[in-house]
Amino acid sequence: GESVGLHLPTLSVQEGDNSIINCAYSNSASDYFIWYKQESGKGPQFIIDIRSNMDKRQGQRVTVLLNKTVKHLSLQIAATQPGDSAVYFCAERSGGFKTIFGAGTRLFVKA
Amino acid sequence: DTGVSQDPRHKITKRGQNVTFRCDPISEHNRLYWYRQTLGQGPEFLTYFQNEAQLEKSRLLSDRFSAERPKGSFSTLEIQRTEQGDSAMYLCASSLGWGDLNEKLFFGSGTQLSVL
Fold first, then answer.
1. Which residues of B touch A36 (CB under 8 A)?
2. What is the pLDDT of residues A35-55, one digit of tens each?
3. Interface membership of A1 toward B (CB under 8 Å)
4. Taking Cα atoms as reference points, which of B15, B26, B6, B19 lies closest to residue B95?
5. Distance (Å) of CA B84 to CA A62, B54, B57, B88
6. Quick one: which H or E segment has residue A11?
7. Could you report the per-residue pLDDT of A53-108, keeping only the tens digit for each?
8. Binary contact (B102, A103; C-beta < 8 A)
């Protein structure tokens, strides 16, 4: 069945370092992947997305990498800042209308 | 701010009572979604509207749950005979989607439901 999961529930990084958040997915039919950020008391906020015909996409300070061979997705945050502290969700779609979310990784940024 | 608006932000109710939540999407968005999120988990899909038509419902959505989007704008989610297991954050999201194009969801801040 469909599932999206994360390797680690928490990640702690020093301010200024790069962060890498990993995600595994099991549905080989998934064709669209998204990373969302959720701060306390707020709904998830779109960060970056990637289609399955790509293996890398860059945004402002963020990069998403997709490895379809091993069904792995990662989010890289450059020069992590205290404002990046949040829960990060990977999500996927497989042609339908549902976006399926993983359980999330909490990122702590140490000053 | 013209983002997704949800009301109320918090709701405390007693078991067995009915509750209704409202979602006002971004005005030009044709798609509207309801999700449920419990502590430490990712949002779980509940149901989806394209304009006023409810096109998909999760198997998680028991017959105590009903959602409407009567004029293709705001939506309501009603839970009848609430149970303690209904306690969660109910999130609404909207998007401007056509066909199978990439679709960004814009979420509201949610309604936190506590059933005592």
1. 105
2. 999 999 999 999 999 999 999
3. no
4. B26
5. 39, 26, 22, 9
6. strand A10-14
7. 999 999 999 999 999 999 999 999 999 999 999 999 999 987 777 889 988 999 99
8. no
pLDDT in tens, B9-52: 999 999 999 999 999 999 989 999 999 999 889 999 999 999 99
Distance separating the N- and C-terminal Cα atoms of chain A: 41
Phi and psi at residue B88, to the nearest 5°: 180, 175
**CB B104 to CB A34 under 8 A?**
yes
Average the pLDDT over each of A59-63, A81-85, B58-62, B98-102 and give the range with the smallest value.
Answer: B98-102
Q: Which conformational region is residue B60 in: left (phi greater than 0), alpha (psi within -120 to 50 degrees), or beta?
A: alpha
**Contacts with B56 from chain A: Cβ below 8 Å:** 96-98
Phi, psi values for residue B45, rounded to 5°: -65, 135
